[in-house]
Amino acid sequence: MANFTDKVVLITGISSGIGRATARAFAAAGARLVLGSRDAGAGDALTAELRERGTEALFLATDVTASGGLEALVAAGLRRFDRLDVAVNNAGVEVTGAIDGGDEAAFDRAFDTNVKGVWRALRAEIPALLRGPGGAIVNLGSVAGMRGMPGASVYAATKFAVEGLTRSAALELAPHKIRVNAVAPGPVATPMLDRFTGGHPEVMAQRVPLGRLAAPEEIARAVLWLASDDASFVTGTTLAVDGGFLA
């Protein structure tokens, strides 16, 4: 596992699933953590768990759709640790339905969280990262952002947008030695997938060549690799962790 001893890592959307697994993985690798989630109870519980294991961790209830929320999270991290080395923009929501169905409120909620939330996060994180000699940003995309997804057109559109933000930010920040990449998970055993499939995640497992869902920890390991010095010449790319789904 990559070594993040004394590195400061900010992660959004840590209340469950991939975000929680990623926070635990960075903690195990020695990082100091700045954690954000709308779910204050889950965030406090995870932070207490990590502190009991010896991790320096700060949690702030954070809504990525709220103006100033991400700036407050970054500012709290800087007050506590005086630096930021890695940012993982994981917060997101699912939305299902055909193009000619659904409602405009669901569309707006999905784009406000999945796209504008990442945009807000980048705007808050970049000045902090520029204070150091370099750094890394990992955005959470999806295989839905790399192919069409019938029945989830709006969700797919948000993840295609994250692809564009990731690649463009990578080009803008390359002169400053800040790498920007994305991870595109395939079907993962998370509460989001349960909701996405109406409580039948096995339907998605049947579409994966490896014959199963990913564990959140498998996605977390990919995030750590992209954020680590082992990926020092990787920027502007999306790593699909999908069991062969796209193939």
From TrEMBL:
Top EC class of this enzyme: oxidoreductase
Alphabetical list of NCBIfam families matching this protein: PRK07231.1
Family per similarity comment: Belongs to the short-chain dehydrogenases/reductases (SDR) family.
Protein name (database record): Glucose 1-dehydrogenase
Chain segments annotated as transmembrane: none
Domain of life: Bacteria
Keywords: Oxidoreductase
